[in-house]
Amino acid sequence: MAKVRQPKPRRPKRPDLLDTLVHPTLRFVWGLALIAVLVLAPRWETRAAVMLLGAVLATLAGKRISFGYFLVLAGTVVFFHLLAPFGKVLASPLGFPLTEGALLGGWKNGLTMAGLVFVSLGTISRKLHLPGRFGELWALTFAWYERLMESKNRIHPRAILLSVDRILEHHYPTLPRDEGDESASPLWTAGLREPHTATTVWGWLLVLATILATTTLGVLLK
Amino acid sequence: MPASSSPRAQARLPLVAFFGALSLFFATLEYLFPTPPWFKLGLSNLPMLIALDFFTLPELLLLLVLKVVGQGIVNGTLASQAFVLSAAGSLASFVVMYMAFRLIPRRWVSLIGLSLAGSMASNAVQVGLSMAWIFGPASGIIAPWFLGLGTASGLAIGWGAETLQRHSRWLRRVKRGQSATA
Amino acid sequence: MKPFDLVFLALSLTLTAGTAWAVLAPTNTPLRLEVQTDKALYSYPLEVDQTVKAEGPLGITLVHIEKGTIHVEDSPCTNKVCIAMGTIRSSGQWVACLPNHVFVRITGGAQTQDSVDAGVF
Q: Are the C-beta atoms of A108 and B63 separated by less than 8 Å?
């Protein structure tokens, strides 16, 4: 007899603190500005600063940032850079040259990549509104996605396809047959865009201060 | 944006959105399977495979954009290299799957074959891009691992899509709804 | 499984095996520039054009990599033999600036045995 697996207790969703401070659109622009600093900064120290800032922002946004992820990512990038020697040979264990240029280049690249991921995690809000008809379609997609996610616990690892099919059957809305068809799911048409708060004074301060600080650092550390 | 604005095409747009949501949902189901962190099974490709039968080319392209942009927003990777890699992989995979779907009669190919072709295209493009752009040429050593695991996951996902297509009660409802509005 | 499923499966497996072979088989390593000075050994790929500054007791010898070829562009020595030695492009070839203790050579490629060892100078 197979043991019936209990559904995992749901991890409490951590709130997105930045959502209460900064409007999603401004937040997106904020992220782009930080990314510009990250990518354009000539020194790795500046990039490390932006990367750390990104990690803080992502944490504030309720995302789980693991130091291990950063280490694995940076380590992988450094490793692959070392395979292509460049510059001064620091040591040659087993006859393979470990070079300074490759080490530095890999480190800088690894920091940049981790920075991109962290800044992105911190500044892209799920409530980000995309413009136009595509934006409306996306809002609809996202609304359904959230619905489906609510049923995630009903998935049985031993019968994934079957349980997913039941969930879909449960959620699949009835199409409107005619104009004003009452039986149609309201999700087909309803106002889908979640309201969100405007940027507060603290939000503006946070955005401007971080952009100013990182840019200054980038210019000073030429 | 598809230019089609006939009432029928309008009515089908929400269905595209539902498939988009389904792709995102499947993408999050990857946590059910233990995989190395740098490798994605590509579960979000499963709804795409099923969708080939349902939608016109513009609708499919719209679904592709919803899937790619949606994953970027939901996972918050929209502005990182990870996003560019996954977008390029998804696009390559779609192009190959769609062409195989149109060119090869259905009695000669099942969703398993289409899935394998898509997975191969996606992984080849992602390895190529990461060699050229992120990890340097030396990272070519991961190519066989990527392609090997991709073959396995391509088989599994194709099998899953084929099974759903044959037995899904949900899909039967979708098809009924489609013919009712047509 | 339908016929083209098998075709795509075979293609996938071939591609996997092919890349595995390409990665694991002992093939020609790409050509590299090695610059030996008194203080350190430097190593660069030949594909990237750049100027390498090699520091010796007399000053800085400029080694230029251009389109897969190498020549000494400038050197603080008096006889300038290294500049006169011209351009090298294949594995085993070398240029030396003896007064400034800079030894430049190309390694890698199909050739396995080194015709000149760095220890010679």
A: no
Closest Cα partner for C53 from A100, A87, A84?
A87
Any A CB within 8 A of B132 CB? no
Confirm or reject contact between B41 and chain A (CB < 8 A): no
CA distance A103 to chain B (A): 13
- What's the predicted TM-score (pTM) here? 0.72
| CA separation for the pair A73, C22 (Å, rounded) | 25
ipTM of the complex: 0.85
Of the candidates C101, C52, C94, C95, the residue with the CA atom closest to the CA atom of residue C76? C101
Contact state of C12 with B120 under an 8 Å Cβ cutoff = yes
Interface test with C, best of B114, B125, B147, B163 (most C CBs within 10 A): B147
Query: In this complex, is the C-beta atom of B60 within 8 Å of any C-beta atom belonging to chain A?
Result: no
Print burial letters for A78-102: b (CB count within 10 Å at least 16), e (below 16): bebbbbbbbbbbeeeeeeebebbbb
For B60-73, give the DSSP string: HHHHHHHHHHHHHH
Buried b (16+ CB within 10 A) or exposed e, C39-49: eebbbbbbeee
Lowest mean pLDDT among A185-189, B68-72, C80-84, C117-121: C117-121
- Of all helices (H) and strands (E), which one includes residue C109? strand C102-109
Quote the minimal CA–CA distance from B14 to chain C in Å.
32
For residue A205, give every residue at least 6 positions away whose Cβ sits within 8 Å of its Cβ, in sequence order, or none.
none
Strand order in the sheet with C102-109: A98-99, A87-91, C41-45, C29-36, C102-109, C94-97
What is the side-by-side order of every strand in the sheet holding C60-66?
C50-55, C60-66, C69-74
Structure token pair of residue A22: 């900064």
N-terminal to C-terminal alpha carbon distance within chain A: 68
Segment B24-44, tens digit of pLDDT: 999 888 877 777 766 788 899
Query: Kind of pairing, strands C41-45 and C50-55?
Result: unpaired
Residues of C in contact with A88 (CB under 8 A): 40-42
